[in-house]
TrEMBL record:
Gene Ontology annotations of biological process type: lipopolysaccharide biosynthetic process
All residue ranges annotated as the Glycosyl transferase family domain in the record: 212-354
Chain segments annotated as transmembrane: none
Gene3D superfamilies: Glycogen Phosphorylase B (3.40.50.2000)
Domain of life: Bacteria
Keyword Glycosyltransferase included in the entry's annotation: yes
Pfam families registered for this protein in UniProt: Glyco_transf_4 (PF13439), Glycos_transf_1 (PF00534)
Keywords noted in UniProt: Glycosyltransferase, Transferase
GO MF entries: glycosyltransferase activity
Protein name: Glycosyl transferase, group 1
SUPFAM superfamilies listed in its UniProt record: UDP-Glycosyltransferase/glycogen phosphorylase (SSF53756)
Positions of the Glycosyltransferase subfamily 4-like N-terminal domain: 32-189
Species of the source: uncultured Acidimicrobiales bacterium
Length: 390
């Protein structure tokens, strides 16, 4: 049962932390941080270790009720972003008496600043501070102010990698405990072998006009993902592989016109496929069937596509000195951020195949195996308990 009033936020089993998780910013087609929230909700609901309430947009209750049938859904947030940002500060404050001792979890950088009671915030990366040129100016102004304020008011802070946690401590010097909790991966979907075999993967890809051999990137097309550099690196190797295509899977974000310009300048537009946002079942097929999976952004808080590529046994190329490189030690080629010549060399070496590439592919699933959403959720439950104790 879903409802549009917040009274359910104070009910729950004795001994189970009561958690109000704000899912109001998650789009219908999630990527990156949105996938983290969706999978966290699924895992928390499945484990039954918390009394979970989800605070959703007014038009989005059915999605969350289907995802977490045992949770209460308070569908109270406006749909439009400016109104939702104002709501984030006003509604929880007005409802603080009814929230009681529920832990409020803001999973996307921010918190209702005046809310009394235990609060947890997740910070995914600090690029709004370190590389503001990668973001819209209005977002930079908003999130730099709100991340500082939320970090100072939180009772506990979650970061998605140790690198992000270290940078947050250095930049913001928070007084609340900071926990580095890596993401997980759905090992039923992201696995070296497809249910139904390789033909099932090829059929899914054929429906999008994609067939091997191809190099794949998947993620939001935005400045920090360094996709224009990937286009130029592909151009450097394409003449030696006349049947090879480049697949850029993901929706265009802010700044995606730079990708358009790079494709136009490459002279290879007919060999660069842009299927847009792809359904969840297609992503593993892309990774498993690829000749090289390239996820080499300038910087990243975690880099979930790299972990998913490892789980599929895909031949991964990623960026050195990042969380992706930390996760994939020995199972991926790494290149310096923004080094297009090195990226082209890595693609060429991966396309050549041989024992080293086969060894990296075989190491990937073993490295990814410990990282599950259940493990991620269990670590969050400990953070919720810590916030309650403060």
């Amino acid at each position: 049962m879903h409802q549009d009033r917040p009274a359910a936020l104070v009910t729950g089993d004795v001994g189970a932390p009561r958690v109000a998780l704000d899912v109001s910013a998650i789009p219908a087609r999630p990527a990156g941080a949105g996938v983290y929230v969706v999978e966290l909700v699924r895992a928390l609901a499945g484990a039954g270790a918390v009394d979970l309430s989800l605070v959703a947009r007014r038009d989005d209750a059915s999605r969350w009720q289907a995802l977490a049938p045992g949770a209460e859904v308070a569908a109270v947030a406006p749909g439009r972003r400016p109104l939702r940002l104002a709501w984030e500060q006003a509604w929880p404050l007005a409802s603080s008496a009814r929230l009681g001792r529920a832990v409020w979890h803001g999973p996307h950088y921010t918190l209702p600043l005046l809310l009394r009671g235990p609060k947890v915030v997740t910070v995914h990366d600090l690029t709004f501070f370190d590389n503001p040129e990668w973001h819209e100016r209005a977002k930079v102004a908003y999130f730099t102010r709100m991340i500082r304020a939320s970090g100072s008011r939180a009772d506990a802070i979650v970061c998605v990698s140790h690198r992000t946690a270290d940078r947050l401590r250095e930049l913001l010097a928070p007084t609340a405990p900071v926990s580095a909790i890596p993401h997980g991966v759905d090992h039923e979907r992201f696995a070296p072998e497809a249910v139904g075999g390789p033909d099932r993967d090829l059929a899914l890809l054929a429906g999008l006009g994609i067939r091997p051999p191809f190099v794949v990137f998947y993620g939001t097309l935005e400045p920090r993902k360094a996709v224009p550099g990937l286009v130029r690196a592909f151009s450097a190797v394409a003449s030696g592989h006349p049947d090879l295509t480049l697949v850029l899977a993901g929706r265009p974000g802010w700044g995606a016109q730079e990708v358009d310009a790079a494709i136009a300048a490459s002279g290879l537009a007919e060999r660069i496929l842009r299927p847009g946002y792809v359904d969840a079942e297609v992503v593993p097929a892309l990774l498993r069937s690829s000749s090289a999976a390239v996820y080499a952004p300038f910087a990243e808080g975690f880099g979930l596509p790299a972990l998913e590529a490892l789980a599929c046994g895909a031949p991964l190329i990623t960026t050195e000195a990042t969380p992706m490189a930390d996760l994939s030690a020995g199972a991926a080629l790494t290149v310096p951020p923004g080094d297009e010549a090195a990226l082209a060399e890595a693609i060429e070496a991966t396309l050549a195949g041989g024992p080293e590439v086969a060894a990296r592919r075989s190491r990937g699933p073993a490295l990814a195996a410990p990282w599950t959403w259940a493990r991620c959720a269990a670590s969050h439950v400990e953070v919720y308990r810590r916030a309650l104790s403060r």
